[in-house]
């Protein structure tokens, strides 16, 4: 009877929900914090440079914590406890913002936000999902990664509604309560492995041969891994600096602010769709083929950005569609790639390394499009460079996959 109940409602779905909630919190303290920036700048009397530095601080701290502290942290804590503590940190983060009246206070919040971004992000979620899903792993990872997209859509809406009734500190305190509730839910529901509840991974009964292959999978050799890491470094550069400058590209090209905001409003939903689509296709066609397809989406999007001077709304909309679909490479794509080129034992470390290199590329390239635009008066040349970097990244990733397959024979 108990086996039937488990089959009717696999607990792996609850684990996936925990992943979605965790990534929602990550999006709320990191990516979606940009929605608060205009209000933070006004409330705290910050300069534009100080306001812009808040997100940069979050990214830098996240990179350091991911590279140095992530592994020791999860050796000391289980994923259940570690994630719950990190999400509780998100609640504290919003409380710090609520009591901040100047730049120093908001910097403290940004520092803690970077820690939360690293400790509750895709690396630990990927490891837990990998333990709970023997089949449809990539789709489950895509659904979890979509949590940040949900945050990017809902946080600005929540902000607009609440600011009509409460002050900015009051809104931050409401968000702190929401983060705390999610932390408690994750602690109550999450388990590191299905064996802790006397269960097996979802799909295990129907995929024992496949599971055996995955357990015996080899790690990529150092040359193959470095080839992949350099490609991912370049991917981070374009999905960071390239993506963040789309709005100024089109405004600089002569589009109105209303047109640009209308185009970019598609982004959140498309990003969610892209992450889920990547997972669904990867489960059917394999990670290598799916990765190449989504690289092609990115390349098509960047090429359309290079045509911004034509002032075509159709081309602009298509560019945003392709780019937001392709952005899945920098989230769920990293976990899927790590799973395809590493053993189960080294999966977590490989995911962490790919994540770190993505962040390094993003931070390093973030100001380059602006520098180029200042020099030549247009962002279009920067997007030709972005396109070339993406093509090179695709070549390196494809080479790494080919080397891995050859060495695995």
TrEMBL record:
* Tree of life domain: Bacteria
Task: Kindly give the InterPro entries that the UniProt entry links to this protein.
Answer: MFS (IPR011701), MFS_dom (IPR020846), MFS_trans_sf (IPR036259), Proton-linked_MCT (IPR050327)
- The Major facilitator superfamily (MFS) profile domain extends over 11-405
Keyword Transmembrane set for record: yes
Q: Where does the protein end up?
A: Cell membrane
- What membrane topology does the annotation report for this chain? Multi-pass membrane protein
Keyword check for NADP = no
Looking at the UniProt entry, the stretches that span the membrane are 12-41, 53-70, 77-97, 103-127, 139-164, 170-190, 226-246, 258-281, 293-310, 316-337, 357-376, 382-402
Which keywords has UniProt assigned to this entry?
A: Membrane, Transmembrane, Transmembrane helix, Transport
> Mainly localized where?
membrane
Protein name per the record? MFS transporter
What organism is recorded for this protein?
A: Faecalibacterium faecis
């Amino acid at each position: 009877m108990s086996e039937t109940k488990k089959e009717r409602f696999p607990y792996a779905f609850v684990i996936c929900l925990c992943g979605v909630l965790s990534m929602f919190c990550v999006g709320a303290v990191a990516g979606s914090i940009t929605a608060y920036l205009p209000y933070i700048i006004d409330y705290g009397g910050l300069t534009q440079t100080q306001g812009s530095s808040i997100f940069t601080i979050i990214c830098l701290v996240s990179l350091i914590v991911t590279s140095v502290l992530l592994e020791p942290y999860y050796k000391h804590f289980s994923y259940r406890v570690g994630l719950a503590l990190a999400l509780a940190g998100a609640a504290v983060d919003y409380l710090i913002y609520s009591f901040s009246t100047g730049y120093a206070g908001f910097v403290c919040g940004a520092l803690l936000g970077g820690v939360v971004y690293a400790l509750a992000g895709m690396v630990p979620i990927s490891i837990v999902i990998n333990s709970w899903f023997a089949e449809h792993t990539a789709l489950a990872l895509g659904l979890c990664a979509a949590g940040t997209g949900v945050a990017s859509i809902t946080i600005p809406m929540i902000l607009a509604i609440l600011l009509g009734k409460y002050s900015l500190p009051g809104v931050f305190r409401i968000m702190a309560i929401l983060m705390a509730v999610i932390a408690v839910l994750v602690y109550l529901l999450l388990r590191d492995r299905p064996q802790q509840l006397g269960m097996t991974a979802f799909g295990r009964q129907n995929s024992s041969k496949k599971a055996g292959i995955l357990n015996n999978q080899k790690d990529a050799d150092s040359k193959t891994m470095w080839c992949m890491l350099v490609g991912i470094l370049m991917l981070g550069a374009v999905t960071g600096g390239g993506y963040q400058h789309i709005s100024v590209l089109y405004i600089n090209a002569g589009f109105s602010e209303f047109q640009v905001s209308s185009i970019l409003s598609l982004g959140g939903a498309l990003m969610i769709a892209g992450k889920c689509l990547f997972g669904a296709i990867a489960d059917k066609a394999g990670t290598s083929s799916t990765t190449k397809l989504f690289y092609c989406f990115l390349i098509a999007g960047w090429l359309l950005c290079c045509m911004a001077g034509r002032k075509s709304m159709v081309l602009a909309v298509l560019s945003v569609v392709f780019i937001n679909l392709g952005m899945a490479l920098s989230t769920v794509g990293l976990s899927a790639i790590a799973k395809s080129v590493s053993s189960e034992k080294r999966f977590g470390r490989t995911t962490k390394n790919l994540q770190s290199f993505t962040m390094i590329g993003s931070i390093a390239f973030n100001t380059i499009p602006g520098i180029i635009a200042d020099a030549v008066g247009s962002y279009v040349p920067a997007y030709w460079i972005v396109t070339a970097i993406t093509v090179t990244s695709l070549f390196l990733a494809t080479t790494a996959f080919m080397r891995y397959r050859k060495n695995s024979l």
